[in-house]
Amino acid sequence: MRRVKFILAAGVVAALGNVALADPPKARSPYDGVEIKVLTDRTSDGLMQPLFEMLEQDTGIEVDPVFLDEGLVARLESRPTEADVVITKDAELIELAKRKGLLAKLDSPIIEKTIPAEFRDKDGEYFVDAYRARGIIVSQDRVKPGAVKTYEDLAKPEWKGKVCTRSGKHDYNIAIFDQMMKAWGDDKAKQVIAGIGRNLARAPEGDDREQAKAIMEGVCDVGLLNSYYYPKMFEHRSQIKWGEATRYVFPNQDTDGVFIMRSAVALTKATANRGAARMFAEYMASGQTQRMIVQRTKQYSVLPDVPPHESMVSMGAQQGIKDGRPKINFVSLEGMADKRDEAVKFVEEIKYDNGPG
User: Fold this and answer.
1) Which of 285, 252, 280, 257 is nearest to 268 (CA)?
2) Most CB within 10 Å of its CB: which of 43, 146, 239, 254?
3) What is the mean pLDDT of the segment spanning 256-265?
4) Ranges of each domain in the chain
5) How much is the pTM?
6) Per-residue pLDDT tens for 143-182?
7) What contacts 24+ positions apart, CB below 8 Å, involve 77-82?
8) What CATH number labels 35-131+261-309?
């Protein structure tokens, strides 16, 4: 019996010794276990939360997100080191934050090598991670194919009382109006913006997709809509009929191209977790994440070798657009920011949000 106990005890000691000698779990990255805070005006569902989970699984970096509906720059200005990373659905806001001295340089050879120059800040303080077209939506039944082909068409007299948009002062519309001013010059841009305002069927209200609903209800015949919203309507039972009643148009394909909305990533002035924050930014630029962005949001990747979502390919094919990528009238974020205040002032001057009359 004593010999049996001895053998058992020796086995236990040996087993414990093997456990002690076993290699510790391998770190997933130099920042495994580091927590960073991300400030964003994007919604938590769809992309952000799955992205944060994938990041932690791959790198060990944990994310404590702060989600805002609006006021991103003001929050960053009042709490400049609250977060390590800032992500916005409207990249023009990142340029404004840069001008206020709220961002830090990325200092990332990976991002410089991976992201095309036109989607990187020239001073290396932010980069665009995805974009979508700000196009036109028209009635399937009441607007003949080809009747509306450009932004300028929306300002023509034949569409008086037939245009719907969200507020002219919403970031999405200010972004397209300031691009018009930069690309076309003030005179032409103001004529088109004022013409759209005169053609409104009602005072601006709702979000982008609610303009499609208004078209279905016969309130108007045409409106403005970000490209990724169109296929998303078919994913919600209550909105399928909005999508079926409408048709998407990538405008100005025979002339200067469609204007785009961009989302962007930057580092704040916080320094405690700078290395982990930079790795997060580099992760956003990776092919893996770019493909995830395309599949989950239906935006376009900034990487030329990541193909558009199949819904964008299908929408583009209706206009003869190959590979799903429409012709773009590219205006830099710096150029947009230069014209932003002027666009806001003009929208207020013409009382755009008052609607017709």
Assistant:
1) 280
2) 239
3) 97
4) 35-131+261-309, 132-259+313-354
5) 0.90
6) 999 999 999 999 999 999 999 999 999 999 999 999 999 9
7) 77/102, 80/268, 80/269, 80/270, 81/268, 81/269, 81/270, 81/271, 82/37, 82/39, 82/268, 82/270
8) 3.40.190.10
